[in-house]
Specification:
- Helix content is 43%, strand content 14%.
- It is of the alpha/beta class and 869 residues long.
- Strand 14, helix 10 and strand 15 form a beta-alpha-beta unit.
């Protein structure tokens, strides 16, 4: 049941279950044990990701439906492969005309059978919303949309109902109004609706509905239901209710019972009311279904991982009863390991000089959190403050605490948090998590604000003395406010403003942690091996901001900051003539990093077609980056002139006719970092496949992954090419000579994953042993062993090797550079070993292994126990 290794597939209308089924032989040959499938339930038509589910009771017909999924599962099982399914319990897509639960709520209001499925406040303090639902789907102010005729009353043939139509949105007429609207017509389809073309008549009818149509830009101020982040077309679910829980999980439970899936990945666990209770309930339900699985289906505990962003010093709570996270923590750790600490100070200085922005990420995070909180979540913030006011009013100690003061305290506390949320439930006295206490300590406030902050902490900790129901409500609202603020304020704002080194800016990363020592990395592995040995390990996802090899290449800049600064200064000068004055130096600096990190291997500065394709990718990235940063343009207030100036700048500097000198200089620099970046990429892939945990590979990343943020990281994958090149007989010398095509990475991954299949206990149950390195290049090696009984694997990887590799064509430093550097393998000395990559066998592993003997051909070594002669 526990996967040995997974391969993430993104299903959508252009990549269906049938396409996945055709890959079964390839994936089995690659060495994975499970397909890790993106969400498969019916999503909004044309969805490219599946997280916008509209029907939890139906497998998506666009993907192949129920029959297609069964066929996929059967084909995979025939090859010994299972499926881990991505599920979305936090939210559903709303608006449009395709979510029957939502449409029923619009039609019937608080009497709908589904009104409690969504987190709706029917008692809003807004007089227009008393007992009604805000429907903020208008692209213009209400009066303008009404007066222009954009809103119409019509009979909808698909719904077979009268509904207000606005573009693709449908808002069903409440049943009480049918008699007066029909006016004697035999059926709704035959009704004369001409009088409702008059805006006044239409407005009068709209006033009586269970919903209030509104301009989307007013949503943050007025919305009376919880969204996913600030997305109006994604409504949060009350998954804590038993009936909602069962309805949302009906298909995953059925598929598990039938033996078609072996576990799940839970999306956005932090959005739920009580993640711990949810996870325990999910574990219990799967356990109860185990006996129903058919003969031949794998037995044991269902595999459950959660999409959880952990702060640097945060651990996944042990009482959740899950197998771990989806691996962003590992992605952060392996990336930090490949950054040289000596680059932090000069890169800080360069960022400040270029951008005139602070080098302190704390200030960017606080600003990002506060900005998102007060501009996109005003209504939710006010509701949270009101809930704490209710709790405060029940106690003499806090009786005179005004709501405005509580709101200011919530803003300050959420802004200073460095975690997504607390797991307090407000019901029983607990110790508040350390990150929250540290957030409180960072706030320098007067006596009044101190009182409010202390009261909020007491409520969260269950010791305020407030009635349990009031404390529960306030705590729930606080946690479900802080989680989206962390995601949007940090990941989607601060990380796009802070451009010191973009390889340390990704989902789950903490830019405050520039690099990680070998000892710290070993510590994280030891901890995972003991507490969550089956946690997922990933280095690329559908949500990453930069591909795994883009980050690996940019990490090289930490080793050559002086050369980098010289190049940046030169590029600023060379591109000045084609740059509009409005364009910001800090944005240009991030653009230069992106060009270096994502420059396709083999792209020549005179390849017009290749440059045009690359330019489109960069423009898409830059547009998203500028809008996410919210400094001069944003998704809600687009500055078209500013964005056009930036787009034209990119098009100019990637045009050899206009910026040849710049492009030639850029290509020379990419030539310096490409090889050490590729070496980093190979080490990263090998460590992911061997460290404690369960390795996941994102689709296509068995070749070099120099992608950028979505949609770039969701581009079609050339699986046919990958199937052709998965060749056991390929000679390593040929792979090394053509390393730019990515086959060397695929070959290395397949070698390790197949060995994992041969010796599963070494990795699933084996202990983790850090290996000490000594000598002149001791700091340039990360090494460890996985040991189970008499079987073992020794893994060593080169790190910080820009010095010997910059500008070369060899993927590993030569023997002379390693000099007298040794791996202390005395604990395994005397045992026969086999070099997994070369196939050669040593009759006896020495107590002190020379780095030059194992790290001069490839930047990673993999020595495995061999049977004695």
């Amino acid at each position: 049941m526990i996967p040995r290794a997974t391969y993430r597939l993104q299903f959508h209308k252009d990549f269906t279950f049938a396409d996945g089924q055709a890959l079964a032989p390839y994936l089995a040959c690659l060495g994975v044990s499970h397909v890790y499938a993106s969400p498969i339930l019916k999503a909004r038509a044309g969805s490219s990701h599946g997280y916008d589910v509209v029907d939890h009771g139906l497998i998506n017909p666009e993907l192949g439906g129920d029959a297609g999924f069964h066929s996929l599962a059967a084909a995979l099982r025939a090859r010994g492969l299972g499926i881990i399914l991505d599920i979305v319990p936090n939210h559903m897509a709303v608006g449009g005309a395709d979510n029957s639960w939502w449409l029923d709520v619009l039609e019937n209001g608080s009497t709908s059978a589904y009104e409690h499925h969504f987190d709706i406040d029917w008692e809003s303090r807004d007089p227009l919303l008393k007992g009604k639902l805000l429907a903020p789907f208008l692209a213009a102010p209400y009066a303008e949309a009404l007066g222009s005729g954009g809103i119409k009353l019509a009979f909808d043939e698909r719904l077979q109902k009268l509904a207000f139509a606005y573009f693709h949105h449908r808002f069903p007429l409440r049943s009480e109004d049918y008699r007066r609207v029909l006016g004697g017509a035999a059926s709704p389809a035959e009704a004369d609706l001409s009088r409702f073309r008059n805006p006044e008549n239409l407005h009068a009818l709209l006033e009586s509905q269970h919903f209030v149509l509104a301009w989307s830009e007013t949503a943050g101020d007025r919305i009376n239901w919880r969204r996913f982040f600030d997305i109006d077309e994604l409504a949060a679910l009350k998954i804590e209710r038993d009936d909602v829980f069962e309805a949302v999980h009906a298909i995953p439970f059925a598929l598990y019972s039938e033996g078609l899936i072996d576990g799940v990945r839970v999306d956005h666990i932090d959005g739920l009311c009580d993640p711990a209770a949810y996870c325990r309930k999910l574990r219990e339900r799967f356990a109860g279904l185990e006996a129903r699985r058919p003969n031949g289906a794998p037995r044991g505990r269902a595999y459950i991982v959660v999409e959880k962003i952990l702060a640097h010093d945060e651990e996944l709570p042990a009482d959740w009863q899950v197998d771990g996270t989806t691996g962003y923590d590992f992605m952060d750790q392996i990336s930090a390991l490949q950054h040289a600490m000596e680059g932090e100070s000069p890169l800080n200085s360069l960022w400040h000089k270029v951008s005139n922005r602070s080098t302190d990420f704390d200030s960017e995070e606080v600003a990002g959190r506060e900005e998102v909180l007060v501009h996109s979540f005003e209504s939710q913030l006010a509701a949270t403050a009101a809930s704490f006011l209710q709790a405060a009013s029940s106690s003499t100690r806090s009786h005179d605490m005004p709501e405005a003061l509580l709101q200011r305290a919530i803003v300050r506390l959420v802004a200073e948090m460095r975690v997504y949320r607390t797991y307090a439930n407000g019901a029983a006295a607990i110790s508040i998590c350390d990150p929250l206490l540290r957030a409180r300590a960072r706030i320098r406030a007067g006596r009044r604000l101190d009182m409010a902050l202390d009261f909020i902490g007491d409520v969260l900790a269950g010791r305020s003395g407030a009635p349990v129901d009031l404390a529960l409500d306030a705590t729930r609202r606080f946690n479900q406010l802080s989680a989206p603020i962390a995601a949007m304020g940090v990941e989607d704002t601060a990380l796009y403003r802070y451009g010191r080194l973009l390889s340390r800016n990704d989902v789950g990363f903490d830019p405050r942690i520039f690099g990680l020592s070998s000892a710290d990395f070993h510590g994280s592995c030891v901890c995972r091996a003991s507490s969550l040995p089956n946690a997922m390990l990933t280095t690329a996802t559908h949500d990453h901001k930069r591909g795994e090899d883009t980050r690996a290449r940019l990490a090289v800049l930490s080793e050559m900051s002086a050369v980098w600064e010289t190049s940046v200064r030169e590029w600023m000068r060379l591109t000045q003539a084609v740059r509009a004055r409005r364009i910001d130096d800090g944005d240009v600096y991030q653009l230069f990093q992106t060009l270096v990190g994502a420059w396709p291997l083999g792209l020549a500065p005179d390849d017009c077609d290749g440059l045009a394709r690359f330019c489109r990718r960069i423009v898409d990235w830059l547009t998203k980056s500028l809008r996410e940063s919210r400094l001069r343009t944003s998704w809600t207030e687009i500055d078209h002139a500013f964005e056009r100036a930036n787009r034209e700048f990119v098009e100019a500097i990637l045009n050899p006719q206009r910026a040849r000198e710049f492009m030639e200089s850029l290509c020379r620099f990419v030539g310096l970092v490409a090889v050490p970046g590729a070496a980093n990429g190979l080490v990263q892939a090998a460590v992911r496949c061997a460290a404690p945990g369960m390795p996941d590979m994102y689709q296509g990343c068995e070749y070099w992954d120099i992608s950028l943020v979505d949609p770039d990281n969701r581009a079609p994958v050339d699986f046919a090419a990958r199937e052709r090149t998965l060749n056991d007989d390929e000679q390593i010398e040929a792979l090394l000579s053509s390393w730019r095509d990515g086959r060397i990475k695929q070959w290395l991954i397949a070698k390790i994953l197949r060995y994992r299949a041969e010796e599963p206990d070494v990795f699933a149950r084996g202990r983790y042993m850090p290996i000490v390195t000594q000598g002149e290049r001791a700091g340039n090696v990360i090494a460890f062993a996985r040991i189970h009984e008499n079987r073992f694997a020794v893994v060593a990887g080169a790190r910080h090797v820009a010095g010997p590799l910059a500008g070369s064509d060899a993927l590993a430093p030569d023997r002379g550079w390693w000099g007298e550097t040794f791996l202390q393998t005395e604990a395994l000395a005397g045992r026969p070993v086999r070099d997994l990559f070369s196939g050669t066998t040593l009759t006896s592993l020495p107590a002190s292994l020379r780095a030059a003997d194992c790290l001069s051909l490839l930047p990673v070594a993999f020595l495995v126990s061999a049977p004695p002669d």
